[in-house]
Amino acid sequence: MDFRYLGNSGLKISEITYGNWLTHGSQVENDVAKECVRAALDVGISTFDTADVYANTKAETVLGEALAGERRESLEIFTKVYWPTGPGGKNDTGLSRKHIMESINGSLQRLQTDYVDLYQAHRFDTETPLEETMTAFADVVRQGKALYIGVSEWTADQIREGHRLAQELNIQLISSQPQYNMLWRVIEDEVVPACEELGISQIVWSPIAQGVLTGKYQPGQPPPAGSRATDEKGGADFVKRFLRDDVLTRVERLRPIADEAGLTMAQLAVAWVLQNPNVAAALVGASRPEQVHENVKAAGVKLEPEVMTAIDEALGDVVERDPGKTEENAPQTRVA
């Protein structure tokens, strides 16, 4: 496993980071989820990412149980706050001081830890003053409940303003967690340059485009049984944007490129995001331990310039690059 600094901090994280969105507490049984975490630890992954909203807090509980007994100082545990949790009451959502303070306490209890290494704003809250949000985050840091602050799916302008306030409050905002993969490159024109300037790294989710870049979805064919595209608990909604025949046909052109590089298509996809110097880690999930063992083989892989060019040529115009998609896909009002 290779390790990278997160932003301009002194914190090192594993460049393959284990994430439990859509798996722990919902898609797979708890014993299998724990086996996946054990597999991650066995291959050298030390960084684990979750969120209070995943399976409505159950994912944090499963991760906490899976990591119990491990040396805490050897781990980096990340979680997030924003989306509705619990019964979904009027203050059970957003980035208000009330919700942040209550959420960090709940997350720590479920994760069985005194602190998280990174506490992330899961989306931008348009209905709470950013000063209130950042002040609450600063207090969480000063109380020793989080070491660093991050954001997820914020625009470049939002990141700039959040970073300015973090500096005023003497806390470190060091990470951005956006969707990023060969097919979805909307952060490249605005978010990445802003983050490079500010000393912020990307921890990217969906590096294999919810499984599309593995090549398991074929043009003109129904999704394989048991795949994410058939998961009505949430996975199907996220993957459907890529399940167009023109996209799937282009993805098939990646197969010989992966073969030539001696990688599976999934490994090629994970390795591709790690070529971006502003990316500190690729988030990978797993519903089976063997998936962890396969994905981790992308760590430390260097793709030559001609391979990167071949990938661009194979995918052509099906790649989404519009930076406006970040704001377009964000909640415009607080979700209740």
From TrEMBL:
UniProt source species: Knoellia koreensis
Any one Gene Ontology cellular component term annotated for this protein: cytosol
UniProt protein name: Aldo/keto reductase family protein
Keyword annotations: NADP, Oxidoreductase
InterPro entries for this protein: AKR, K_chnl_volt-dep_bsu_KCNAB-rel, NAD(P)_OxRdtase_dom_sf, NADP_OxRdtase_dom
NADP-dependent oxidoreductase domain sequence ranges: 15-314
GO molecular function, a single term: oxidoreductase activity
Family membership: Belongs to the shaker potassium channel beta subunit family.
